[in-house]
Design goal:
Blueprint lengths: L2 H18 L9 H14 L5 H13 L7 E4 L3 E2 L2 E6 L2 E7 L10 E5 L2 E2 H8 L8 H11 L3 H6 L8 E7 L5 E7 L1 E2 L31 E6 L4 E6 L10 H14 L4 E5 L15 H5 L10 E5 L6 H12 L3 E4 L8 E3 L2 E4 L5 E5 L2 E3 L13 E2 L4 H5 L4 H8 L9
Parallel strand pairs: 11-12, 12-13, 13-14, 14-19
Antiparallel strand pairs: 1-17, 2-9, 3-4, 5-6, 5-7, 7-8, 10-11, 15-18, 16-17
Length: 396
């Protein structure tokens, strides 16, 4: 694009956000924002397209609203998947020719250490807390244009990935970008890839379904996986919960577990009307019998539902601090920026759901996933629930 075209994109972006974001300067002052805009305007003539798009992403991220994002769908991606475990960043999925990298711990990209990478990449990631950053950071590492635009790589086609294998061997590998045929770099990415259903822990099963449950007689437990805040047209939430509650009543269930860990949101209104029904389960809505699992991917409407469980039930919460912030902006709209590979999503409303303005909703018991747990097919959060003998007092 020409300088004048990029000038037009920047002008439109700044004017649109000023007119349509509910509070553009809630985290960044007007003076600081105007300074960033003027600085970018002055540097645009010297920037290539990759750098210009990355700088625009950084500008939007500086607003400090995790729901206001400038999306850049890449034409190519690095054919790897990373996850930030409690013990480091690991390769958890790879194209066949990079299969030797599976389960390796990442030490550097193009000689930049992990700390240096985080400092560089977090500038383009809209986030309001550390959990959101940990959840989003691995996705950005497979975007060749962003890494090149940030100056991390020397070309938008190749990275130098330094890893340490399980036997302690440290090597650096050249990874080539591949066509992004599905055009799903960010929105369609799962936080973790599925494993074989027969061996996978519950949190990695049935990820194509909006919601599902299973009765586990050996544990006298019903497990309810709520993966997406949406109503499946062929299986309405009301009918689904009728079956779930029937299973609880008929099978002598002593424990009900609601898993929101990988629910990134949608519409909180799908589940919200039914949460009082969970509170009305006399044999379940007791200390140590109702659990809600949350994590870094619990965001937006899913976090709203978690807070509703907190308000109306005696649930014990287990997992990681949420990627969503309890009091935050949301209810987004999305539009493409003409002539670019960019699309803007921005908030239209502010939601205050907690008297305490904390960065994350922190569960009662924080339990993190290590790479060793993942590789062994172990879910430490689930194991904690099954072995929990501590009973906390009702908080209300």
């Amino acid at each position: 694009m020409t300088r004048s075209q990029w000038d037009g994109v920047l002008d439109w972006l700044v004017q649109h956000l000023a007119s349509h974001h509910p509070n553009l300067h809630h985290s960044i002052s007007r003076e600081a924002w105007d300074g960033k805009v003027e600085d970018l305007q002055s540097r645009l003539p010297s920037l290539n397209d990759h750098r210009a798009q990355t700088e625009l992403m950084s500008l939007v991220a500086s607003i400090g609203d995790a729901h206001t994002i400038l999306h850049w769908e890449p034409s190519e991606v690095y054919p790897l998947r990373f996850y930030w475990f409690s013990d480091g960043l690991y390769v958890i999925k790879a194209q066949d020719k990079y299969g030797h990298l599976l389960n390796s711990r990442v030490l550097a990209i193009n000689a930049l250490s992990m700390d240096q990478l985080v400092d560089a990449v977090k500038k383009v990631i809209p986030h309001e807390n550390e959990s959101r950053l940990r959840g989003e950071f691995p996705h950005y590492l497979i975007h060749p244009g962003i890494l090149y635009g940030l100056g991390i790589t020397h070309t938008p086609q190749e990275m130098q990935l330094t890893c340490v294998t399980g036997d302690g061997l440290v090597q650096t590998w050249r990874v080539q970008a591949e066509p992004n045929l599905k055009r799903d770099w960010r929105d369609a990415q799962e936080p973790m890839p599925p494993q074989k259903e027969t061996n996978a822990p519950l949190y990695l099963r049935g990820k194509e379904q909006y919601y599902w449950f299973t009765h586990l007689p050996n544990h006298e437990t019903v497990y309810f996986r709520y993966h997406r805040c949406g109503e499946h047209p062929a299986y309405p939430m009301a009918a689904f919960l009728d079956q779930l509650f029937q299973s609880v009543r008929e099978n002598g269930t002593k424990r009900l577990v609601v898993d929101l860990r990988q629910n990134r949101g949608g519409s909180s209104r799908v589940l919200a009307p039914f949460i009082p029904r969970f509170a009305a389960l006399d044999g379940i809505n007791q200390q140590g019998r109702l659990y809600v699992l949350v994590g870094r991917e619990t965001f937006s409407s899913a976090l709203m539902n978690a807070l509703q469980f907190r308000k109306y039930t005696k649930a014990i919460f287990v997992g990681e601090p949420t990627g969503g912030k309890p009091n935050s902006f949301g209810e987004t709209v999305t539009m493409e920026l003409p002539g670019t590979d960019l699309a803007l999503t921005h908030s239209t409303k502010y939601f205050r759901q907690s008297e305490v303005d904390s960065d994350s909703f922190v569960p009662d018991f924080v339990v993190e996933l290590s790479h060793g747990d993942y590789a062994a097919g172990v879910d430490p959060v689930w194991d904690y629930v099954l072995s929990d003998s501590r009973r906390i007092q009702w908080r209300f």
